[in-house]
Amino acid sequence: MRAPQAMYADDKHNLTAVPHSSAQRRWRAGDPPMPSIYMGHGFPGLLDDELWMSELFEWAVSMPKPAGIVVVSAHWEQAPTMITAPAASTPLVYDFGGFHRRFYEMTYASPDATALGLRIAAMMPDDEPLHQHPARGLDHGAWVPLKAMYPLADVPVLQVSMPTHDPARLMDLGRRLRELRHEGVLVVGSGFMTHGRPARQLMMADDGTAEAWSSDFDTWAKEMLAAGDVEALANFRGTAPGMPHAHPTVEHFTPLFVTLGAAADPEGGVRTRIEGYKIGLSKRSFEMA
């Protein structure tokens, strides 16, 4: 007798999420703008985590299904500014190593996003034209969490590269994308609120706790976001507790400034949607009006 196929956490998630996603009301003209969000995208192992997937999905269904999604991910640092290839079912980027083979066989066949790409290009200044990558698809900073949020892959998605780590310039990029929110587009800064990985951290039991460098930075970020202190956030390298361990390299924090720039009021405070820790790293994710 043939052994039954293993049911992974993402399979279980889809059993309940797919019917709800299929019935989810889509954004319509006249609806309030879609939020600007900062999302902890985790790593491929997110799709083995039933709790984290359910948190992301509950967030997704708390708002209308967007007309499109634009992601600025920690995993595409590229100047000049570029967008991913817009064709339907463009192959994914498997930019990770050491995971189970099944993660390298996953797909996320989102629809054609040519129209969305043209809208993004129209928002770029004349002296900083947008370039289109001929073949690059979504990296795991986009497709991993989106598989949990929108499991039907029925929303056009494009990534915009992160051309700098300068907070002011990233906020400018967010401001250019802000108008899209009024057209039903979800603007996403995709990173990880803490991303330090000292060798000792890899040996920790994943018990939902964190070392002080991670928890201290997370608490500081929570307080600065609640206070709308954009200046303090922009100076995180020199003033935030837990640095530099919380972000030995900064690419997982700086997408936050795209989120702030795309918000109607960058100092207006945030609504936290996910918090807690995974492998000692902060999952903190939030939205802004």
From TrEMBL:
Cofactor dependency: Zn(2+)
Alphabetical list of SUPFAM superfamilies matching this protein: LigB-like
Domain spans labelled Extradiol ring-cleavage dioxygenase class III enzyme subunit B: 55-267
Top-level division of the source organism's lineage: Bacteria
Entry keywords, A to Z: Dioxygenase, Metal-binding, Oxidoreductase, Zinc
InterPro entries, per database record: Extradiol_dOase_DODA (IPR014436), Xdiol_dOase_suB (IPR004183)
GO molecular function: ferrous iron binding; oxidoreductase activity, acting on single donors with incorporation of molecular oxygen, incorporation of two atoms of oxygen; zinc ion binding
Pfam families: LigB
Family: Belongs to the DODA-type extradiol aromatic ring-opening dioxygenase family.
Protein name, per record: Dioxygenase
Biological source species: Kocuria dechangensis
